[in-house]
Amino acid sequence: MRRCFLLLVLVALPLQARESDRTVEVLRYGCANELGHREVTLFRNGTVRLLDGPPGQELMGLSELSPEKLTGALNRLAEEDLADARQLHKGIEGPWIEKCELHLQLPDQKPESFRFGRYDALPLNLSRVLRVAEDLAAEVQDLRGVEELPVDYVPRQYDVLKRRDGHRYKILRFTADNNGVELQGIDQPIALFVLREEMRREFVALLSRERSGDK
User: Fold this and answer.
1) Burial class of residue 110, CB neighbours in 10 A (0-12, 13-18, 19+)
2) Please, which pLDDT band fits residue 37 given cuts at 50, 70 and 90?
3) Do the Cβ atoms of 119 and 63 come closer than 8 Å?
4) In terms of C-beta density within 10 A (0-12 exposed, 13-18 middle, 19 or more buried), how is residue 120 classed?
5) How far apart are CA 108 and CA 176, in angstroms?
6) Contact, 78 vs 106, CB < 8 A?
7) Hey, which bits of the chain come out as E strands?
């Protein structure tokens, strides 16, 4: 019995590490105005997500970088010293001018954020970082409609849900205070605890639900 327990612990630790990598943003660069919103995000595990379309109606696409491409992108980002980009001069402003944001959280560095207009004159080093972001966006070949759980979704035991990373999870039970949901991975042996209020942020689709009275 002790051997089985130790084996489960050893297997679970690397899986949890990879789970964290899928949610940590290394780079997020987006621009938006009243007509459109475009945003590219690089996650620590090498996943690239691209959102593009009218605000609230964006299409989404995903791509997985090879280890070599991920290392190359991280190296290009780390090479740039953005100290002189922390105080940017405002350029053209107006109701249709896109406003942009760049967020960086590189390994072993403090998080940094920058806000600027689409047509602002930017320092060369910041422009090179944006070039990396556009190169990452070009890795995404296919955009599809963004899936989302219904606003009125109420979790029920044994619901099978699709997470944002595409993996399936089944609801096993609820916490004693009924505020948390325990789920078990179907595609991989990972257990999750999610607050009810966070369910629509973590999951995008209800794949199946047992009818009342089913066992």
Assistant:
1) exposed
2) very high
3) no
4) middle
5) 39
6) yes
7) 25-32, 37-43, 47-53, 59-64, 99-104, 112-117, 144-145, 160-163, 168-174, 180-185, 191-195, 203-208
Of 59, 15, 6, 69, the residue nearest 37 (C-alpha): 59
Residue pair 42/19 in contact by the 8 Å Cβ criterion: no
Per the CB < 8 A criterion, the answer to whether 171 and 157 are in contact is yes
Region 164-169: what's the mean pLDDT? 86
Q: Which residues have a Cβ under 8 Å from the Cβ of 104 and sit 6 or more positions away?
A: 26, 27, 77, 82, 111, 112, 113, 129
Side chain identity at 89, as an amino acid letter?
Answer: H
User: Which one-letter amino acid corresponds to residue 125?
Assistant: N
Residue (of 65, 61, 73, 16) closest to 45 by Cα position: 65
Q: Which residues pair with 195 in a beta bridge?
A: 180
| Secondary structure letter of residue 203 according to DSSP | E
3-state class of 38 per DSSP? strand
Distances (CA, A) of 1 to 8, 13, 15, 171: 11, 19, 22, 27
Amino acid present at 36 = G
Q: What does the pLDDT average to over 69-94?
A: 86
DSSP tag of 186: S
pLDDT of 101 above 70 = yes
